[in-house]
Amino acid sequence: MEKVKENLQTTEQRPEEEFINNLEQAIETNRAAIAAFKRAIGCSIAEDTNAMKYFYQMLPYPVIGKRIQEEIYFLIATLFAYTKRKGNISLPDALKKIKSSQKDTSSIERRFSILLDSNFEKDPFGSIRPGELGNRLKGVISILKSNNEYIDWVSLLTDLLRWDHPDRIIQKKWARIFYKKEKLPTDTPNQS
């Protein structure tokens, strides 16, 4: 009995994975949805009724009715539609990779710092809009796309769901990844 439960748990997808898989399938099977999401960049769900119908068809059941989560999933749908590609690297890792290939890193470092300081726009009714965070993410995704760097969307979605944590755990995690210096190979210590 335990083995059956264990097998069922391993075959079920997390809502984040299911949603990204739905978006990937839409690239091939539902170009109208991808086009609608692309036009809705920077909007909330309620601001684009055309994208809304496709969004709720793809949204995993456990997320439906959770207003803040719905808005974050919608933001991801719009950004994903802009690139139409999935990678296997986190957003801060991808930016770090671009930074390491540049002579002048001040521009990418400034953009990253501004991104870390960005927030969702909160409305008085307890929901959110993409706000400045959505705009900053679009700019960063554009940089990644122009450098042929594609990110792990499940990772980004998971991080954005915790973006507003009071301890800013995601911002700290991203900063550690982006700013951490690579270890240089060192000589073996002298043994005297």
What can you tell me about this protein's structure?
This protein has 192 residues and is an all-alpha fold. The protein has one domain (2-179): Peroxidase, domain 1 (Orthogonal Bundle). Helix content is 61%, strand content 2%. The chain contains 10 helices and 2 strands. It has helices spanning 2-11, 15-29, 31-39, 49-58, 67-83, 91-100, 106-117, 131-146, 153-160, 169-179, and strands at 121-122, 128-129. It has a two-stranded antiparallel ribbon. A hairpin with a 5-residue loop joins strand 1 and strand 2. Helix 2 (15-29) packs across helix 9 (153-160), helix 3 (31-39) crosses helix 4 and helix 5 (67-83) runs parallel beside helix 8. Mean pLDDT is 89; it is low at 3-10.
Number of continuous helical runs: 10
Distance between the termini: 62 Å
User: Can you tell me the CATH architecture?
Assistant: Orthogonal Bundle
Query: What portion of the residues fall into strands of 2 or more residues?
Result: under 5%
Structural class label: mainly alpha
CATH topology: Peroxidase, domain 1
**Level of helix content?**
55-70%
* Biggest beta sheet summary: 2 strands, antiparallel
- What is the averaged pLDDT score? 89
> What is Rg?
19 Å
Spans of at least 5 consecutive residues whose pLDDT stays below 50 are 3-10
Strand runs, count: 2
CATH superfamily: CRISPR-associated protein Cse2
Q: Looking at the structure, what is the overall shape?
A: globular
Strand order of the largest sheet: 1-2
Number of structural units classed as domains: 1
